[in-house]
Amino acid sequence: MTDPSTAASGAAVSASEFVTGAEHVQTKPGKPRSLASDAWYDLRRRPRFIISAALILLVLLMAAWPSLFTSVDPNYADLDRSRLGPSAQAWFGYDNQGADIFARTIYGARASIVVGISATVFTVLLGGTLGLLAGYHGGWVDAVMSRVADIFFGLPFVLGAIVILSSFRATGGSSATEITLLVILSISVLSWPACMRITRAAAITAKQQDYVKAARALGASTSRIILRHLLPNILAPVLVYATIALGGFIGAEATLSFLGIGLHAPVVSWGVMIADSRDFLRIAPHTLLFPAAFLTATVLAFVMLGDAVREALDPKTR
Amino acid sequence: MSDPILEVRDLVKHFPVRMGVVFKRTVGHVRAVDGVSFDLARAETLGVVGESGCGKSTLAQVLMRLEPATAGAVRFEGQEVLDLKGAALRKLRRDIQIVLQDPYTSLNPRMTVGDIVGEPFEIHAEVAPKGDRRKRVQDLLDVVGLNPEHINRYPHQFSGGQRQRIGIARALALRPKVIICDEPVSALDVSIQAQVMNLLGELQQEFGLSYVFIAHDLSVVRHLSDRVAVMYLGKIVEIGTEAELYEHPTHPYTQALLSAVPVPDPDLRGQRQIIRLEGDVPSPVDPPSGCRFRTRCWKAQEVCATEEPELITRVGGHPSACHFAEERSVVP
Amino acid sequence: MTVESIVDSEAAGPLLAVDELFVEFRTRDGVAKVLNGVSYRVEAGETLAVLGESGSGKSVTAQTIMGILDTPPGVITGGEVRYHGENLLAASAKRRREVRGSGIAMIFQDALSALNPVFTVGFQIEEQLRVRRGMSRRDARKRAVELLDQVRIPNARDRVRQYPHEFSGGMRQRAMIAMSLALDPELLIADEPTTALDVTVQAQIMDLLREIQLDRHMGLILITHDLGVVAEVADRIAVMYAGRIVEQSDAVSLYRQPGHPYTQALLDSLPRLDLKGARLNTIKGLPPSLIDIPAGCPFHPRCPRVRDVCRTDVPPAHRPAAGRLSACHFAEELISGE
C-alpha cells in the first residue's frame, strides 16, 4: 500500500513545478480574479464562442419576439400559393398549405427553444440533485441511485419517448401546452441519467479534495459542504453538459414531432415543419431545407458553445 | 508536570478490505494505526515521523474525528472525544484544528481568501459577531504574514507558501489549543518551507499552541519538535525527547531512518556510517508476526518473530519497542 | 556573451554542452522567460547536480536537452545543446530520436506515470531493444532480465512479466532506471528521481545510481531541490535561479564557501538533522515572476547584500576563484568571507 500522503506530496511537487509559470504569472497586482472571470476573459477571445453566442442570441430573439423579424402571420395559409419557391415576397417560399415558410421558421424557434430550455432545466435539476446526493453519500444510496439510473440509461431514447408519449396522449388532453409539457417531461425522464453520472463523478472528485476535509474538520454541516464546497466545484462540468444537451434536446423535439408523436399543428415548430414537408421533398425541397437549416445551425451553435465553455473552464488548457 | 492536553491510548484504526461486485465481503483489514499511545503536553510539539504507509496521516484523520476510530481512547483536557456527537463535537472542533499538506487542494478554488478564512466564523457563529468578522479575517491574514488587503483574492492568485499560510490562518481562526499539522511543509520549496516553519514556531509562542507535527522529513521534525515519535507499520517504535531520539536512538529502525537522511555537507561524504535497509515496507494488511520491523532488521532473532516487543524503556532513558534496544549514535 | 566552461575539455568537445540556452513560455498573461542563457557541461563519468527551486528552470533545461519540451507553450529562442559537439537543436527529428535513449536517457520523479500501465515492465524494456537494436524476442527478454538484475530487482525472471502497478515505489523507480539503461546511454538525466520516495528507499536508489554510473562511466545530470542529496553525490553543482545559473562550483567548495548569496541563503534556510535551531534564516519575499524579471540581478529584491549596482547591472558569470563560476557582483567578497 502506498501512503496517500507521500504519493500526493510527490504529485504536488511536480504539479507546482509545472504550475510555477502560472503561479508567478498570476501574482500581478490588482483585481481579484475568480475562475469564472478568468473563463469569461478567455471566452471573449474565442471566435467559436463569439459565433455560437451570436447565433444563439439571434434564435433567442426570434423565440421571444418573432414579430421583430416578420409581420406575416405564420398560420395564414392560401392554397393558391402552395409549395411556391422562394421569391422576393416570401424569401423562403410557401409550404404545402401555402403558408409563408420564413414566418413559420421564425415562429417555430419559440417551440424549439422552450422545449430545449425546459427539458434541460428539468434534466439538470433531476440528474444534478440525484448525482450530487449519490456522489456525496456514496454507499447504498449511491448503489441504489446508480442502478436506477442504469435502468433508465438502458431505455432506447426514441422507443422510450414513443411509449411515453403515445400512452399518455391517449389519456391526457391534447392542447398545445399539454403536449409541449409532455414532450419536455419525456425528454427529461429519459435523459437525466447522463447528467446524474456527470454530477456524481464530479461530486466524488470534489468530495475527496482536502478543502472538504478542512471544512469537515471545522465542523461544517452536510448541507454546508454540499452547497458551499461541492456545488460550486461541479457547476463547470454540468454547465458544459447542459449547453450541449440543450442543442440535443432541440433536435429531439424535432425528431419526436417528425415521428408524429411530438408537437403538431397548430403549434409551429421546426420539427412540425420538417414533418409537414416529408411528402414533398422531391418537388419542393425548400419546404424542408429552411427549417432543417435553422434546426441544424441552432443545435450546432449550442454544441460549439458547450465546447468553448469546456475549454475555457478547463484549467489544463491554460 | 501539568496534565497533558491530549492523551491517546491504544488507538486503533483498521480499514476493511472488501472484495466483490454486488455482495462485498471483507477479506482483510489494513491495519493503518494499530495501538498507538502518547501524551501531548500544553504548548508542546510532538513530532510524528515515519515512511509511507506507517499510518501517520491516518492518525491525524482519527485524531481530527474525520475517520471513526476502530478502538482506543483519545482524551482532550481529560474529556473523552471519540464518542462526542453534535454540539459537543462542534465545540471540540474549536479546540482542535488541522493544517493539511497540499496547499493546492486544501483551499476551495471557488472561494475568496476572505470566505475561506472566514468560514470558521460562519460555522461557529457564536465566536464572532457578524460585523466583526471581516476585521477578524484581516487580523488573521496579518498574523500569518499575508497582506490583509488581499482578502478578496482567490487561492490561485497565491504561491504555494502563501496558500499554506492561508490554510494556517483558517486553522487559527477559532483559537484552537491543539493544531494537528499533517505534513504542512513537505510540498514547499526549501526557502518557503523555512518561512512556514518559522511562522509555526512563532504562532506556538504567541498563542501557546500544542502541535502534533506529522512529517516524513526528519530534519524538519527535529527543528520544530520537543518530543518525537517514530512510527512503523501502524505502531510507535520509539518515542522520546528530540535530543534522546536523534542523538541516542535505540530502535534499529530509528537508527536506519536517521542514517539514511542525506546531510548537506560534502565533507562528510563517505565518512558517515549509513545503515542500508533491504527491501520495502511489508503490507499493512498482513504485517509480520512479532516485531513488525523484523523482516528488514539486521538484529532479528527468533524471539522477534514470536514475541511482540513492548514500547518500554530498556536502555537510554526513553521507550523503544525492540527486544535488543541499544544506543547507537548515527547523526554526525 | 558566452560563458566559458570551468572544465577545459579536449577538442572533441565534452559529452554534453548546453550553451546560452534561452526558452520562453508564451502564456496568456505574457511571455515568461523561463531560461535566460543557461550554460553547463557534463563529461563522461561526471555527476553534475542542477539545484533549484520550483520555476528555476532546472527541469525545462533537461526537457530541452531531451527534446521533449512542450512547444507550445515553450519556444526555444536561442542557444545550443551539443552532444559530442553536434548541435541537437539543429538536428533532424530522426537524428534526435536516435540520440534519445541510446545517447541520452532520462528518468523522472513519478515512475508510475512514466511507465505504461497496460504493458508489462519486461515488454517495455524489450520493445526498445527489438525496435532500436533489432534484437530477437528471446534475446530481448534475456537482456531485460539482465537489466532488472543489474538494478537489483529480486526475482528478475518473474518480475519481467509483471505490470508496473505490481511494483512498489522503489521497485518502480528501479524498473525505470533499467529501462533507461537498455540502450546503454552515455548520459543519464535524472529529474528528481527520489523526491517521491521515502528516505530509506531514496538511499537505496542513490546508491544504485552512483554504482551504475561508476560501472558504465556514464555522465549523470541530477536535477533536484534537495541540498542533502546533492551533497552526497555531486561532483559539480549548478545552482539555478529565475532561469539562470547563478553559481557553478565543485561540491565541496560550494558548501564550504558559497559564491552567491542565493546559495548561501538556501543553505542557511535548511533545517539540519544534526542541529535543533530556534529560528531558520529565510529568504525574504518570493521568487520573481518570470514574466517580469527584475532589472539587474534577478535576485536583488531578496538579497541581503544588495547594493546599487545590483539594481541596474546584470552580473556577468565570472570566475571568482579557480574552478568556480558565479553571477554575483560581489562573489569575490563572499568567497573570501568578508
Helix percent band of chain C: 25-40%
Task: Tell me the CATH architecture of chain A.
Answer: Orthogonal Bundle
Give the end-to-end Cα distance of chain A, rounded to a whole number of Å. 34 Å
Give the overall pLDDT of chain A as a whole number: 80
Annotated CATH topology of chain A: MetI-like fold
Number of strands of chain A: 0
Mean pLDDT of chain C: 86
Kindly, what is the distance between the CA atoms of the first and last residues of chain C, rounded to a whole number of angstroms? 29 Å
Biggest protein-protein contact in the assembly:
B-C, 46 and 47 residues
Plain-language structure description:
The complex is a heterotrimer of chains A (318), B (332) and C (338). Chain A has 318 residues and is mainly α. Chain A has a single domain (34-74, 91-317), classed as Orthogonal Bundle (MetI-like fold), CATH 1.10.3720. Chain A has helices spanning 4-25, 35-43, 47-64, 101-137, 139-154, 157-171, 176-207, 210-217, 222-258, 270-277, 286-313. The longest helix of chain A is centred in the middle third of the chain and has 37 residues, at 101-137. The radius of gyration of chain A is 24 Å and the shape is elongated. The relative contact order of chain A is 0.14. With 332 residues, chain B is an alpha/beta fold. Chain B has a domain at 250-264 and 271-332. In chain B, the strands form three sheets. Chain B has a six-stranded mixed beta sheet, sandwiched between helices. In chain B, strands 2-1-4-5 form a four-stranded antiparallel beta sheet. In chain B, helix 3 (113-123) packs across helix 4 (133-143), helix 3 runs parallel beside helix 5 and helix 5 runs parallel beside helix 6. The longest helix of chain B is centred in the middle third of the chain and has 18 residues, at 190-207. Chain C has a single domain, classed as Rossmann fold (3-Layer(aba) Sandwich), CATH 3.40.50.300. Chain C has 13 helices and eleven strands. In chain C, the strands form two sheets. In chain C, strands 6-7-8-3-9-10-11 form a seven-stranded mixed beta sheet, with helices on both faces. Chain C has a four-stranded antiparallel beta sheet with strand order 2-1-4-5, covered by helices on one side. Chains in contact: A-B, A-C, B-C. Chains B and C meet through helix 5, helix 6, helix 7, helix 8 and helix 9 of B and helix 7, helix 8, helix 9, helix 10 and helix 11 of C.
